[in-house]
Amino acid sequence: MLDDQGEQLERVEGGLDTINQDMREAEEHLKGMEKCCGLCTLPCFKTEDFEKNSEYAKAWKKDDDGGVISDQPRITVGDSGMGPQGGYITRITNDAREDEMDENVQQVSTMVGNLRNMAIDMSTEVSNQNRQLDRIHEKTQSNEVRVESANKRANKLITK
């Protein structure tokens, strides 16, 4: 389930990157239309480069996460993978029932250890996705401002 969610977040972030590229191209076209006779920019149409904005730089910096890693290292805290040397239960009669109880407790311990490792992996994935959501939020805000700015420029061209 978290893997599917991660893939969806990757697609959303990819879509935002595409919008950013399209806006860069649209701004170049707007800049061309704002020029007088296609040669020089009129002072009334002078606009600052959106990509020099600090908010843009913050949102579109290189990803902090780096490349895709398919096998994350696990956090282990004092887990040697084995139970106590003498077994989990105190031997009184030293018969087959105590052996079976010890085996059952060892299996339960292994299962609890597996659940713990799964919980750690899920926590790591959720943390990564939270960072990705923060990046998506910043990119979305940047794209929104950029589109609004381009719309204003286009409307200004239409009215003149």
Question: Which regions have little confidence, pLDDT < 50, spanning 5+ residues?
Answer: none
What is the structural class? mainly alpha
SS strand fraction: under 5%
* Oligomer classification: single chain
- The global form is rod-shaped
Rg over CA atoms, rounded to whole Å, is 29 Å
Largest sheet: 2 strands, antiparallel
The beta-strand count equals 2
Q: Give the neighbour order of strands across the main sheet.
A: 1-2
The average pLDDT is: 81
The H-and-E topology, N to C, reads as HEEHH
Tally of helical runs: 3
Estimate nothing, just give the exact number of structural domains: 1
What level of helicity do the residues show? 55-70%
Distance between the termini: 53 Å
Biased composition (Basic and acidic residues): 140-151
InterPro entries: SNAP-25_dom, T_SNARE_dom
Domain T-SNARE coiled-coil homology: 1-33, 95-157
Family: Belongs to the SNAP-25 family.
Itemize the secondary structure elements and their pairings.
Elements: H1 2-34, E1 35-36, E2 40-41, H2 54-59, H3 96-159
Antiparallel strand pairs: 1-2
Helix pairs in contact: 1-3
